[in-house]
User: Fold these one by one.
Assistant:
Number 1:
Amino acid sequence: MMEPPIAPRPNRPHRGGLLLFVLILAAWTVALCAPVDQSAAAEAIGPPGRRFYVSKLIHIVGYGSLTMLAAMIPNSLQGRRFLLLVLVLHAPLGEFLQGFFSRTPAVRDVLLDYVGIGLAMLVWRRPWSGIFRRPPTESPPRR
């Protein structure tokens, strides 16, 4: 007897990858809202000017890394669009939440978060190609 061919698996999100994304995003949210011990920061990083630039670089690298992780999850184009939307909305929400946890929210940080997202999409273009294109519509058959 000949076995029937195996149908290709639909392009669905990998549950483990999606769970990892959600857990890392939650940890990132907690880290953004956690108060910073200035004496420990001064000891680890150095003078206030350097701390400022390091903290801004952390925003870019953090959101860039989350964008790359979102691209690694096997998913459809619509799924990647959704994860990108989550990141784009998370940036201002995270800054807003910082105001409740003895941190100062800043629009500049949201813009830097977007820079990180954009840079990651530019560096790793393939998973994000076509994300802003409209899906093709079916044209009626010609007679």
Number 2:
Amino acid sequence: MAMSSGATSGLARTTGQVYLSHAVAFAYISHLASAIEGDPARVEEWYRCACIRELGGQTAQELVMQGEADRVVDFLYAIRCGERD
């Protein structure tokens, strides 16, 4: 199906930008989490599946999808700085 309206192509660009920001957030959060847990498979499992009690019981992935990657980053920094276990 061809896209003929400018609005539709703008939506595609916006959607691509949102996806990119999620991918960038995933990469950055994974990098931070890797300093805590060295196994990449476990980091990815944590990102997608672990409900983080301190962040409302949501997973890191859910928070990123809601535009709240900064909360996950702050959480990981607090762990790295010894402010929590």
Number 3:
Amino acid sequence: MGADPELHVAVGGGAEDRLSDLPDGILEHVLSFLPAEDAVRSSVLSWRWRGAWAHAPALNLSDERHLQGRFLSFARAVLARYGARDIPALDVVIGCKSNLGPGTPAWLHYAMERVVGSISVSVRCRDPWTG
């Protein structure tokens, strides 16, 4: 049996980077589904990805990965580095045990001034009886 010329298998890296060949709009759309932390981290994948997150049509911020008091700093930095004045959509998730502090209302007000599409702010609490 001969090898299929259309089948390319890469083991241990060295694979062709097809994601970087996507048009900007599609790459940015894909990044809009990720949590902001992961979208920002994608900048290290290749030169082509640097800053792509800052043009994503949606930002997803959550305090789940941040130590108390650090989420607001990260959220401010993300908004400050977003590539356009207007943010198409913003989704913010805050946990019940979050301690966002007194700067939260000012940050939310600033965020609301920049979002031109939809904005969602959710507080998620786990039921102690069901986990």
Number 4:
Amino acid sequence: MLYTNVERKRKHLTNFNVCVFCNDNLEIMLHVLCDCMMEQSVWREAVVKKDMLNVFCAMSYEVWLDLIFIMDVNYVLQR
């Protein structure tokens, strides 16, 4: 499991629940994967094919995990 700051704070592992990149929103998985403009640039340039970014951000977290871990990873990732 990937812990966001919201989860880490809930488990008393940190005192902060905001995004470390934008310092503006709660760091939940949806924010990390799609909503944070600072982190989105990482996804856009390093991980997700440029033509897949809108599709990627429209997916639920569960569908995203299925694509990454079950289906053809090369379809989603630029590697």
